[in-house]
Write a structure and sequence with these properties.
- The structure holds 3 protein chains of 3 kinds.
- By secondary structure, chain A is an alpha+beta fold.
- Chain A has 2 domains: about 10-185 and about 380-435, D-Maltodextrin-Binding Protein, domain 2 (3-Layer(aba) Sandwich); about 185-375 and about 450-505, D-Maltodextrin-Binding Protein, domain 2 (3-Layer(aba) Sandwich), CATH 3.40.190.10.
- Chain A is about 40% helix and about 10% strand.
- Chain A has helices at about 15-30, 55, 75-80, 80-90, 100-115, 125-130, 140-145, 165-170, 195-205, 220-235, 250-265, 290-305, 315-325, 335-340, 390-405, 410-415, 430-435, 450-455, 470-485, 490-505, and strands at about 35, 40-45, 65-70, 90-100, 120-125, 180-190, 330-335, 355, 380-385.
- The N and C termini of chain A lie far apart (about 50 Å).
- Chain B has 14 helices and 2 strands.
- Chain B has helices at about 10-15, 35-65, 85-90, 90-125, 130-135, 145-155, 160-170, 180-210, 215-220, 225-255, 260-265, 275-285, 290-315, 315-325; strands at about 65-70, 80.
- Chain B has a two-stranded antiparallel sheet with strand order 1-2.
- The chains are: A alpha+beta, B mainly alpha, C mainly alpha.
- The interface of A and C includes residues 3 and 97 of A.
Chain lengths: ~500, ~325, ~290
């Protein structure tokens, strides 16, 4: 059966009993109760714009929803605290969590079947949002409806961090909002400050400059750092390797890794498309042009001096390697700070790790001159969307949950709990959170906030990546091409051209 | 599925002429209900369940493979004829998927058969046969996905014992097991070999017990050496057993992709992307259901082909295997 | 080697061959058992202990594998915090349920097919066996649609039916072989004694009972070890052990200790069952083609 929150008051009542109670209450109140879809139930009480807030919150008391989510910290935190939502609204929400590839499958099958087993979906912007955008309800219809308990801050573009609402909520068309930003994973550099300090003398002797990571550290410096650590590791195995890329079996994270690298040089993009909007017909790709080849050569050079596990480590595995002391630097999503700072499972905890923006592009890797280089940063914005195939009442009830889950208070609760990744600007202004940015801290993720929210996501560093219906196949093509390059099967030029041909083929160019 | 049960001598003769096997069956006078209906009723529930779960998906597959399946809600699928199939010809990953599948299966099967026969020959009639066979069959009981996780753990480049072992022996110079295109293939093959060599060994053992002693002894009298004896007497007798083992394992190689999905997802750089994993990507990651159905259809054709071979093997030598020889 | 009765000559070559044979057996034994041992040991390790590995080439330090303070934490957590008791129950219900359905429907059908002669019997058998052989990925989407429209997704009955897709053809095929070996004369005699057909069928059931028992166990094994069906058809409401194990891979950490413990929990019962039906294992896994 579904996960039942430990403290849930209904835990002791059987589901049938629970439904009967809900139905009974509803009938007494003159409202209908209807079981719909997989384990979802809707019970409605009429409300009016003039009703009290409490009545608006409780209008679907006794209903039951299903939320299909990725197994990210907010979902765990919310699941642990679902009782507060139940107390507030009387709506029971089953939160199912799975790895992203599985969520993608299940959500995809559910959306296509048109039956809406999962009224609430975790709309991870590219893998789920891009292909399935049309299946999600336009949240504008609810966010102006004053018979619903609306968030005091509202849902406008300005309450979220810049670009977040566009990234996960807007697809191909400026009008509808398909999802609200629920959590975010923003890339930044995690590095072992203790080792950097210890080894800087040796490094300086070889390379003539200090071993330190700054906002001006470039990808070429990364090659130096990684080569140095690799050499030291071969001499003394207690010193870790320097760096590792994300090249596991999940296409998207691999694509994100190479995307940062490409964008850092001349702000190179895959398609001539506005990434905040995306396009159903992106047209010919830029892969295979001179800049892409030059950047790919740099990526290959970095791969050559990286951890030998380079081609197996997905994001998660890479972090495990870092936590086990296997690499001295990783570019990682900031939500991972919580696990890196956990002394029980990480040797890099307790002040050994420092956080910075991703490396800058290297001027000499720009093709055709020019000194346009940026500290490329990208992200996955996990939105929460509502299945448009569900009945209007289910959608409204789902909206109450979506609004609550993305609210200031909930985000703060998650951040204080298992380590969330806020999407609302106001959360960062809370005094406790400001204080937590310095060690010792009770919210390890806050250690990354300067690198992430103050610098990384700001223009021109942020790159959102192509939002196209065939996003998943695009990720896979880029992943395979890149892996063929860094494993030596293809040269940088051949790899870029192979990616170009395959991308153009799926878009009929 | 109209049962046409032979209930008159004429019909029975007709069926025998068509090659039906005869079972000692005579229409009996003690039952008033005609036998054919009675037997049909017994069959029916299973047939209905099977039809529901196999025929419907099959027709659905054909429908999908001839359409461009729309992802947007409310749009109806577009008829594209055999376009989905034609596109496969220019799809490099489709061709390489087949190739990788055959490479993977060939590696798995040759190693498993080689090792399995060796183990069986050594164990046959030895004092330790019972104990060792019992130990050897443990991996077969493990869920393939658990085996996938276990081997992923063993191959890990940071804390994997097999990684350490290969490094220490010196065969793995740089890189890691699952991160290297060549090694990754061997790594997934090794997992399959670990789980299923024992099955081949067990089948071979069953076969060895049925090698006719008189033939062996006759050869011995001829003064044939043990190795020649093995080649000229034992091996021909084992052949049908090995054939069955190979066919069954080959089929499972593309029926079960749990281990590959978990360990490599087909990577690195498509080195372990056997066709079923590519099909999995196309259908469940890209949601190109039309294209996926076309790929699935080609895979089903192979299945049907293998099925035909298998039923032939089952029906002819199998009968001999059970009853014939010294068993 | 093929038979003990054959006279053997002592020679240096034979000695060498024997030595090689023994070494090969030992290596093969280690190769088979080592992964299981590591799984078991690692399931008692804390995360950082599990990361301990000797330096490359440092053979003397292999003992580090056992140098840790054992903890039963992972097992306790699985059953207290991670609801593995529920998943264990789901696994049991789904696999035994499907075995029961498959073998009972299968026995009737197998008996009928065995006793009847009709045109197209070979085709029918071929169709049945090919149902079992179809790659799961190829038919998953349409199956999901059927299951969804009958409200079976995420339920144990749904999962039981899903496992029946591979267990039922297996049961029919195997049991038909059993009934083929039971002489028709027995039923005839019974009918002479006044039994009706159904009673006659019930009468010969005990004759094939040991076989049926073994194949129930095999059906349980197939269902228990399934992952693809369980993850898609059983999603959510009917989560089984393999699916729950896969979910231990979480975005911020792979809980290797818990995964290994879950692996042990999933594997050990099946190993015992496997030993139980040891005699029928080969027949079962070769679809009845090879009997020991």
């Amino acid at each position: 059966m579904f996960h039942v929150p430990k403290k849930a008051l209904y835990k002791t009542i059987s589901r049938r009993k629970f439904l009967e109670l809900g139905g009974g209450v509803a009938t007494v109140l003159g409202a209908g109760s209807l079981a719909v879809g997989l384990n979802s139930v809707i019970v409605r009480r009429p409300v009016y714009a003039s009703s009290s807030d409490d009545a608006k919150w409780r209008q679907y008391e006794g209903s039951k929803l299903v939320f299909m989510s990725e197994n990210t910290p907010p979902s765990f935190a919310i699941r642990d605290n679902i009782k507060s939502f139940y107390d507030l609204t009387g709506i029971e929400v089953d939160i199912l969590t799975d790895g992203l590839p599985t969520v993608q499958q299940k959500v995809g099958i559910d959306l296509r079947s048109g039956r809406a087993d999962y009224q609430l979906n975790y709309v991870q912007d590219k893998p789920i949002g891009s292909p399935f955008a049309d299946f999600y309800a336009d949240l504008n219809e609810f966010s102006k409806d004053d018979t619903l308990p609306l968030d005091a801050q509202g849902y406008g573009d300005e309450v979220w961090f810049e670009n977040f609402l566009d990234a996960c909520g807007v697809y191909y068309d400026r009008g509808p909002i398909r999802a609200f930003p629920y959590d975010c994973a923003v890339s930044c550099t995690f590095y072992r400050q203790d080792l950097f300090e210890k080894l800087t003398k040796d490094f300086e002797a070889d390379y003539g400059y200090r071993l330190e990571f700054t906002d001006d550290t470039t990808y070429k410096n990364m090659v130096d750092f990684a080569a140095f650590f690799k050499k030291m590791h071969e001499r003394d195995s207690s010193i870790p390797y320097g760096y590792a890329q994300h090249h596991g079996s999940f296409g998207w994270t691999t694509q994100l890794d190479i995307q940062r690298h490409m964008y850092a040089q001349n702000q190179w993009l895959d398609f001539a498309v506005d990434d905040t909007l995306g396009s159903k017909n992106p047209g010919p790709t830029n892969w295979g042009d001179a800049q892409s080849i030059k950047a790919m050569e740099g990526y290959q050079a970095l791969a050559d001096v990286s951890h030998p596990d380079n081609l197996t480590n997905g994001t998660l595995e890479l972090n495990t390697v870092y936590a086990a002391g296997g690499v001295a630097m990783q570019i990682q999503y900031h939500e991972f700070a919580a696990s890196v700072e956990d002394a029980e499972q990480s040797v890099a905890a307790g002040g050994k790790t420092a956080y910075a923006m991703g490396p800058k592009g290297e001027v000499s890797w720009n093709s055709g001159g020019g000194d346009n280089v940026v500290n490329a940063t990208n992200c996955g914005i996990g939105g929460i969307g509502i299945n448009a195939g569900a009945s209007m009442d289910l959608q409204r009830a789902a909206f109450i949950f979506a609004s609550w889950a993305c609210s200031h208070d909930t985000q703060l609760m998650v951040l204080k709990g298992v380590g969330g990744t806020p999407t609302r600007k106001s959360v960062l202004e809370v005094p406790d959170v400001v204080k937590a940015r310095q060690r010792p801290t009770t919210m390890p993720n806050a250690l990354t906030f300067e690198a992430v929210y103050d610098k990384g996501i700001r223009s021109p560093n942020m790159v959102l990546g192509p939002k196209i219906p065939k996003a998943n196949e695009y990720h896979e093509i880029v992943r395979v091409g890149t892996q063929q390059c860094i494993s030596g099967e293809l040269s940088a030029q051949e790899a870029c051209e192979s990616i170009r041909d395959e991308l153009n083929a799926i878009h009929d160019v | 599925m109209a049962a046409d049960i032979a209930h008159t001598p004429d019909e029975a003769r007709r069926d025998i002429a068509r090659g039906a096997r005869t079972i000692d069956y005579t229409p009996n006078a003690f039952n008033h209900q005609p036998a054919r209906y009675y037997l049909l009723w017994l069959m029916l529930p299973a047939i209905i369940v099977l039809a529901g779960i196999s025929l419907y998906p099959f027709f659905w597959l054909i429908y999908m493979s001839l359409h461009e399946v729309q992802l947007a809600p409310g749009k109806s699928d577009i008829w594209v004829g055999v376009d989905n199939f034609l596109r496969l010809f220019s799809d490099k990953k489709f061709a390489s998927g087949w190739l990788t599948l055959f490479k993977y299966s060939a590696l798995c099967l040759s190693i498993e058969v080689g090792l399995g026969v060796l183990v069986a020959v050594i164990l046959n009639n030895s004092r330790l046969e019972k104990v060792l066979v019992t130990i050897f069959l443990m991996p077969m009981m493990m869920a393939p996905m658990v085996a996938g996780f276990l081997y992923m753990f063993l191959y890990n480049g940071t804390f994997g014992w097999y990684f350490w072992l290969l490094r220490s022996v010196g065969v793995l110079e740089g890189g890691t097991i699952l991160g290297d295109r060549g090694w990754a293939m061997f790594a997934v093959v090794a997992t399959d070999v670990w789980q299923w060599t024992p099955l081949i060994a067990l089948i071979t053992l069953a076969g060895l017990k049925r090698v006719p002693q008189d033939q062996l002894e006759a050869h011995m009298v001829d003064g044939a050496g043990e190795i020649r004896n093995f080649i000229s007497v034992t091996l021909p007798n084992l052949y049908p057993f090995l054939l069955i083992a190979i066919l069954l394992r080959f089929m499972d190689n593309f029926r079960f992709i749990d281990t590959i999905l978990i360990m490599t997802g087909g990577g690195p750089a498509n080195a372990t992307k056997i066709l079923p994993t590519y099909l999995f990507d196309v259908s469940f990651k890209f949601f190109e259901l039309g294209r996926g159905a076309a790929i699935a259809f080609t895979l089903l054709l192979l299945t049907i082909l293998l099925g035909l071979v298998l039923t032939k093997v089952f029906e002819d030598p199998a009968r001999k295997l059970k009853t014939g020889g010294g068993g | 080697m093929a038979s003990r009765e054959i006279v053997r000559y002592r020679s240096p070559t034979r000695g060498a061959v024997q030595a090689v044979t023994v070494i090969f057996l030992i290596v093969f034994l280690i190769w088979t058992v080592l992964p299981l041992l590591i799984m078991l040991v690692s399931s008692f390790k804390e995360l950082l202990d599990a990361f301990q590995l000797p330096a490359v080439g440092d053979w003397g330090d292999v003992g580090v594998m056992f140098d840790f303070k054992p903890t039963g934490r992972h097992y306790v957590e699985l059953f207290t915090e991670k609801h593995f008791a529920t998943y264990l129950r789901n696994s049991l219900i789904a696999s035994f349920g499907s075995a029961a359905v498959s073998v009972s429907l299968g026995a009737m059908a197998a008996y009928a097919i065995s006793r009847a002669q009709f045109r197209g019997k070979r085709d029918l058998l071929f169709w049945i066996i090919s149902t079992r052989m179809a790659p799961v990925v190829a038919v998953m989407v349409p199956l999901y649609v059927i299951f969804r429209s009958s409200g079976l997704v995420g339920t144990l009955p749904g999962l039981i039916l899903a496992y029946t897709t591979f267990n039922l053809p297996f049961a029919i095929w195997i049991l038909k072989g059993f009934f083929d070996n039971v002489p028709y004369a027995i039923e005839e005699a019974a009918q002479c004694d006044g039994c009706n057909r159904w009673q006659a069928f019930r009468l010969i059931l005990p004759l094939v009972a040991p076989g049926i028992g073994a194949f129930i166990v095999l059906c349980v094994l197939f269902g228990w070890n399934d992952f693809l069906f369980a993850s898609i058809i059983g999603s959510g409401g009917a989560k089984t052990l393999p699916v729950a194990t896969a979910e231990l891979v979480q975005p911020v950490k792979i809980q290797w200790g818990s995964i290994m413990a879950a692996g042990v929990v999933t594997t050990v019962p099946m190993m015992f069952l496997g030993l139980l039906i040891r005699r029928y294992l080969v027949a079962g896994l070769t679809m009845g083609a090879v009997r020991e």
